[in-house]
Amino acid sequence: MDRPMPLIEPMPPAADGVMPWDGPVSDTVAAIGAARAACGDTFVIDSGRDRYLFLFSPRGLQEFYAVPEQTASKGVADWKMLIRKLPQELFEGRRTLPHELFGRSDTQAYLEALEDAISRHLDGLSPGDEVEIFDFTRRLGHSMGLASWAGREMLDSPRIEELVAALDALDGAEAFVAPDRMREVARSKKACEYEAMAEAEEIISESVAARASPGDDLLGTIIERWTGETDQRLSGVARDVILVHLSSMSNMFAALGWTLVHLVQHPGVLARVRAAAGADRDLASRCVLESTRIGQRSIMLRAVLAPVTVDDGSRAYEVSPGATLATFLPLTNLSGGPGLDRYDPDRWRGRSLVSPAGLPAESVTTFGHGVHACPARPFSVAAMVRVVERLFGDYDLEPRFADPVPRPGQIGGVARAAGPCVVELRARQ
Question: Which of 9, 10, 16, 226 is paired with 192 by a 20 to 30 Å CA distance?
């Protein structure tokens, strides 16, 4: 017998439709946007065995982010998304979690590894090359991440291409980038994912075993947390590295891709970025924030664990455990105020959105809010700025694409492009 849906009192308007992991949805943004247009800023979607309470009003968004984690958990909701794709065993027994490796004191170590990874990739480029931007940033993202927490020696491993292929096959982000595929993943009982996890674990374990000592880098920190273990040491370290990598790098390459695309499309902004490179990185940082804002396709979810009252500014709703609070960033980031549908890095002052003026902080989201703000933000922004400076310092990027659009079925993370975004590299005069 199916369990009853969690109660919401009073019951908001219910929208037709399903979430894309439960049934076919051709354009997720359009579908949820249509539900909002029909039902208002607060509505319910019943999909599969789950009930989602969507909140879009200014007060509703404030309440969404303010609910304590122990009452409505973002962590549990994110896990429920990722477990559709990733093997359960990858989450069990972890001794290093992604947020633990992004303290301010760690950023310099990351940036040193970053410079090495960027140099290797730029050394492989020549004028006249045609490069697909998102493929370039994806591969660069793998190198940057692996150099940071798998040891820089991994970049010289003869098995680096095998590892990248395994990580791409394992990629948990596919749960929201291609949610329609999750039914196929379930039918196969994650056979491809288990195979990819085993291969990645083997390659990383071999590299760790070759170290004479833990080392003083970030991989050394992970290794030391497994001191005293025997049978599980290498596999434990490897799975820590895999989970950190998948969690930390799944969206940065896409945000970097849109940053490059937008700068190619806005040569006036690019000229200003080039003029300031090395001396003042604020404009480049603002370009990263603006492209991330526009590229966001994240559905934000909070799994209700205890009874909670949510007020959307018009009425208060009593929400029972088992329900999921939700909001959808492309519907707020691009229409939460006048002009937000246009690219304009000057709408930012540092990390703060200043135009349009007077918007509640929750109306626009790049790296999250409050306790759920992404701990990798300083590293991610610094990394993307450095790639922008070095790539555009050496090359002009001649576009061979028209006006790229996001994948219509995506419902989470930063958008992947629906089609190739190819540029021809030209030596900068």
Answer: 226
